[in-house]
Amino acid sequence: MSEADGDETDVRRAVVLDYLAHGLSDDGRPQYAKSPAGYAVGIDDFQLYQVAFDEDERLTIGSEVVVEPPAERDVVTECHRVEYDDLSSGAKSELEYVVADLVEEYEERFVDFYNDAQPITLRLHQLNLLPGIGKKLRNSILDERKRKPFESFEELSERVSGLHDPDQILVDRILEELRDDDLKYQTFVGRREQEQNQ
């Protein structure tokens, strides 16, 4: 799919991980020239962003902001992607909580991952990328979903023996993908871009 085929009105939202009222510490400009800054994580694809905020806005950690496209931004004045290692220590410590909240808030989307996961190669299945899911647990999930699709994390736990905290397993995988950008398979981070490039 080319960029021209993409939806031009595609709005990307992110959750603020850290708000630095006095700007970034490595910004060499004088204090009066710095704008409030911070870090955010994308809601749809968990991309990490460094952002500058409008000086007149006061934001808190957990606020939702528009990062793309620039014309749709209301409190974000600048935005660019960063890697996990670029985050402030405050943003890193908030990341797990924010990712867990997003997995809970968009439960249906993440339960559907268990319903829709497919083989990647003849020997590797998307479910096997999740921490703690081996061949036996994967087969149990596949057998159960053939009978009836899962509708909630609670139902997943009840129907698949040995699958405890299916939501936390996804959180752990998302964090692993964020922390290690050399992973061969990215299932959640940058998902949106991968789909557009296919």
From TrEMBL:
Listed InterPro entries: DUF655, NA-bd_OB-fold
Renumbered to this chain, the signal peptide range is none
Q: What is this protein called?
A: DUF655 domain-containing protein
